[in-house]
Amino acid sequence: MPTPPSRIVGLRAAGTCLTVELTEPVPRVLHWGADLGDLTPEDLTALSLTAEPAILNNAPDIPRRFTVWPTEADGWSGTPAHHGHRAGTATAPRPTLTGATHRTDPHGGGELQLQLTDPALGLDITLTYTLDPHGILTADAVLSRPAGTDTTPYDLSGALTLLPLPRRATEILDFTGKWSRERSPQRRPLHHGTHVRDVRRGKPGVDSPYLLSVGVPGFGFRTGEVWAVHVAWSGDQRYLVEQLPEGAGVHASALGGGELLRAGEIRLAPGDTYRTPRCHFGWSANGLDGIADRFHRHLRARPQHPRGARPLVLNSWEGVYFDHDLDRLRALADRAAAVGVERFVLDDGWFSGRRADTAGLGDWLADPTVWPHGLSPLADHVRALGMDFGLWVEPEMVNPDSQLARAHPDWILGPAAGLGPTARHQHVLDLARPEVVDYLLKSLDALVGSYGIAYLKWDHNRELHEAVHAPDDRPAGHAQVAALYRLLDAVKQRHPGLEIESCASGGGRIDLGVLARTDRVWPSDCNDPVERRAIQNWTVQLLPPELVGTHVGAARSHTTGRVTSDTFRMITALFGHAGIEQDLARCSEEELAGLTAWNALYRELRPLLHTGRTVRADLEDEARVLHGVVAQDGSRALYSWARVATSPEGQSGRTALPGLRPAARYRLRVRTELGLPSFHQVAAPPWLTAAQEDWLTLPGSVLATTGLPMPALNPEQAMLIEVRRQD
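^ alpha-galactosidase, sequence as received from the core. Prediction below:
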């Protein structure tokens, strides 16, 4: 049971900790980062003493402190934890601590809950920190108006959870992107002022900040101290890191995030509450791989995390597009089953009027002109072949050219003055209207129940501009996300075994809010393996590979026109929840044999790929890529060595395999089932030739410390290296 805590409390797990002093009026953060160990009362006194900064010239006459809920009342001139007003008044928050509970878990971690109140604002705040056994610190807050307070609504303009950073954290890494080029990293030094990333798209977007990291200069995948935050919310967001000349108490800067609120969006009357999105914070002394490992463990520990083997998928989109024909799709299913596919997904084009993307959204019935007997003939055929049947839907959207839009124009989200332009020929349904969610739930329930659907690919193909409720034009973004979550929860409750993929023009809605209700993500509409290498490499910075869809497309990429080798495409798609995205009827027997071998390899390796630690090498040349997965006990590993472009250097030099133990001894071999890459060399390094013929025994000191002289590959080539420890 939670107990009243002592003056200084801490949450500790997996080498990290949060330490808070229950000062008044508002507790302050003494430390977040590396575990400080078991502290004696004298140690805690010293920690408190050294948490007091100097009083500077031209400054408040008391020391500035960085509290758990920083406001101007603390002398904090940065972004406040919350701000708002009551009809233009009550604009100076002064919360005070009224209670606290603290519990620790026997396996590490625990929870600290703080109750704050602000009588002048008529606002109560409950702030909760939860540290899991893997070192991920989750923070959220509930802001509420007690009954009996001033009846004038409190307009909440913003609410963020913030944690301090030390002076050595001076380099920022976050992400940008566009359609088919999601999660492109960008780095910059941390200067004075605020680095803020606002998301105003109604979803995280293809340019999502995704995971905002701040670290010591030059931090990489394997080295350097890093602090990071992810906002688990599927709508408008705000990420920030902020450094003021006077610092943040004894700390240097602040890191945090939350929901980006529009004016008038959250109006709290007496009895109302607002819960901030959960912000997940991580710290690592071992670079970005350390952060990724914490998040992967955190997600894998969830009760709803997929436990079984992740089935090999075939998605019909790049195979047939809108050209739906039962005989053609049955033939595609036959070939899919022959190469070992375990889940067949019918993509866009199956419902009423849907011969192109200009019509039909909202009318969730099989098109009678194409499917006179519904989808059962195909679904039954797929299951008879031993595969699951999945279906593409986009429930939140509607085409103006649809029966739904003509019958219920008032269900469309937009201003009273009239709708703005369509995007991708569609508008957004107002999910805050109960009748809309009721219609969608009935439609989805009927589809899943009628056709025995095991999997929904749930798409979201446009941004939410002018997302307001008519007739008063109140902002709708928050209500839209909350209603989406309720809809997803209801669908899952009615169909407990159903899996759902979060897709949004590819990777436009990837966050831990939607992933609390879905089972995997589609990281990009681009299956070009050159682009996918980078996209997948950074998607797994937050998500473990088993949650990331990775498909083999045709030799000529649908999105870029680039032609790549089968081996390169298959190796790239191996490191995730694998699938196929092409018309198998156009494949030669040789290509089908390659896909069959790839499927067998995926089935063999997915227990490792979907449970191990993701590792990535820090290489000075971005044209070369070395990444892999190492078993949690270190007994086995699989690596991909790839080249995406040419380089000035001819030799790669000795390259260490990340994640292995120098003191261990290993056997190594090159997996050749998918073929060998095209080499840019006259003769291979001798170890490579030996490892193609049989297992090669090498000490860990060579593999993990000095490294192997890697072969010179031609551009757009890859190879697989398997390693097993000798016990």
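The radius of gyration is 27 Å.
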